[in-house]
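Translate sequence into structure tokens.
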Amino acid sequence: MGQARSFLVNFTVLAIGDLAAKALAFWAFAHMARVVGTELFGDVAFAVAFTLYFGLIVSQGLDIYGIQELARDRSRVAAYTANILGLRLVSSLVAATALLITISLLTKPMPVKALMLLYGLTLITSVFSLQWVFQAFEKMKFVATGNVLGQLVFSALVLLFLKRPTQFLWIPVFQITGEVVSTLYLLFLFRRDIGPVHFNFKFHAWSKILKDSLPMGLSSVFTLIMINFDMVLLGFLKPASDVGQYSAAYKFIGFFSSFVLLYNRNLLPAVSRCKGNPSLLQHISKRTQKYTLLLSVPLAVGGAMVSRPLIRLVYGSRFSGGAVALAILIWIIPMTSSRVLYRVTLLSHGLQNYNLGVSLAAVLVNVTLNCLLIPRYSYVGSAVATVISELLLLLLTYAGVRRKVTALPLMGHLWKPVLASLAMAGFLYWCKGAGISVRILGGFVIYAAAGMMLKAFDIKEIRETLGWQ
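Result follows.
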């Protein structure tokens, strides 16, 4: 009970903070899209997606490695932090050099290259990120506060100063400013609560760290390809306006997927302590998977049914073409949120190589489908490719945990949210001529009522898990 309760309380704190941060950022991106239009919005999306690959040289799975190790032995926080920061600093110089060379070889227009250079500055700021330390210590309120501060600064700058399309080069500057504020806040807390920040340049220590972190880093490479290879390929094969339409749809997915990332980071310390204790792991799985599906399934069903008016409401009619992509992409959310438990179980039980193998298989499918579908179907094809590869990844990680660790059921938790979502879907179809606010509110009420009738929500269980009684 204590492990599940600790996990859900920490996740709730972090999720509320991240909700506030992401809501601010989403508002800022909506404003940005309306100001700059589909083409420039597509250029910004392409520059971000392309630059992220060079960020992998800096990250190398070190965040996940650090969380796992500190969750098991907090006394070594100073040594782990110094070694990881030193390794990241050297890696950032390598990444920045590689980015400069690559940009010089591309045939993209100069405004796009300028965006890529500016976003490249995040390679330096990411070196000093200490979120992973506070996540390992389960001090989620600090991480949440840092996220809110960063997004608040970014959003305020965009909303206050981005008024014309010609100001688009300020967008990465605003984002970097927000990241710097967030990073400085956590650095201050680290120095206050733990001690001075040091950099170690000990190659023998780095080699040991990299031996354990690189499989996780390679898995992150595959995850990134799954997320934005389609965006990069669209940027090379299709007009920037197509990238803008797809990016507008993907912002909704990114907003909700941020909770999946938080869920992943917050679940990892709890699952790491379950190694050798399958009954405790099954207990955590039962509650987390149940409520994950209760939240994510109706989100996918409802989001698919109101995708067109939702896109128009947020971005305006110029982005209405992205509604089809959103209706397809939103099915990623229940797949990725369900997969988190299986992925962190593999990682925490020393099965990084298996996780790496299934990630590689899904990436090969994703890349192949994108290369086949994008030339003909543009961003609709990329949305289909993403959903198919995510489904494959879920099935493979589930099978791996069942075979190599223990059975952590999923399907038994699925039928109640599906039935309740079907009732909600009937209501949304019946009132499809109504305003979107009426449809969303009514759909929520119908889903909640159907869930209560099916006894999908156990109020006593929720109260006990959160420690409210």
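Note: The radius of gyration is 22 Å.
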